[in-house]
Design brief:
262 residues; 6-stranded mixed sheet; 12 strands; ATP-binding; ABC_transporter-like_CS; P-loop_NTPase
Length: 262
């Protein structure tokens, strides 16, 4: 299998605080990879370094064997789509216009019927075509998140990065979004990297899980290999039962690990 996305010896930090340390990662076509770990483990930082929102102190990020550092923003946008955890800026546009922005890396600002058709396709795919003419700023947080995912899919890149894509969604829409993503990854041979807190969602929908702690990978592999009581205790400091249902592990938290006094 040829690696679509490869990270070698990546390090990043703020002043004297190290966030990522000598990080390695390789993801092939048609793979959905979830990056899990406690708050502060470096998940979001990793996503932003891949998309060059943040500039690593050292290391290399490659897509299709091309160095991301050597690309301009438009070239990156043709290869990598990014879905932030929240809409940090308020778009004064309609939902349709926000999704249409996803086509920007491929053409000039002058649109075409083909580009509009692609935007409609993504709105329908996410089941939000009824919101097309609504102002983006008037939507709920969960609705905005689905619009941002539709915009990223409209870019038609080989790699899509998602930072907590289900955090503002109810359980029905969480499942809906994860099933859409998994279906697209398989049908279109996409490479998806998802920073996510929900361990059971990660286990159910991912081909591979990377479990992080303090900027480094503690465990990496298939969900049933990574989701173990031992790994959860080391990474999260919790006791948990891990059971198998429909060939998928699911985590039942039992409580925190009590630290022994010296």
């Amino acid at each position: 299998m040829i690696n679509k996305l490869a990270i070698h010896n990546l390090s990043f930090g703020y002043q004297d605080k190290s966030i990522l340390k000598d990080f390695f990662m390789a993801v092939g076509d048609g793979q959905m990879v979830s990056v899990v770990g406690p708050n502060g483990s470096g998940k979001s930082t990793l996503i932003k370094c891949i998309d060059r929102i943040l500039t690593p102190a050292s290391g290399k990020v490659s897509v299709d064997r091309c160095d991301v550092v050597k690309m301009n923003r438009r070239e990156i946008a043709r290869r990598i789509a990014y879905v932030p955890q929240n809409a940090l800026r308020v778009f004064p546009n309609t939902v349709f216009d926000v999704v249409l922005m996803g086509r920007r890396p491929h053409l000039s600002w002058k649109g075409s019927a083909k580009e509009e058709d692609k935007a409609w396709e993504m709105l329908q795919l996410l089941g939000i075509e009824n919101l097309a003419l609504a102002p983006f700023s008037d939507l709920s947080g969960g609705q905005q998140q689905k619009v941002l995912i539709a915009r990223a899919l409209a870019q038609e890149t080989g790699v899509i990065l998602l930072d907590e894509p289900t955090s503002n969604l109810d359980i029905w829409h969480q499942i809906d979004v994860m099933e859409i993503l998994r279906r697209l990854v398989r049908r279109r041979r996409l490479t998806a990297v998802i920073a996510i807190h929900d361990l059971n969602m990660a286990a159910r929908y991912s081909d591979k899980i990377m479990m992080m702690k303090k900027g480094q990978i503690v465990a990496s592999g298939k969900p049933d290999d990574v989701m173990t009581g031992e790994n959860l205790e080391v990474v999260y400091g919790i006791k948990a039962n891990v059971r198998i249902a429909e060939d998928c592990p699911f985590v039942i938290p039992l409580g925190r690990v009590v630290q022994k006094a010296n």
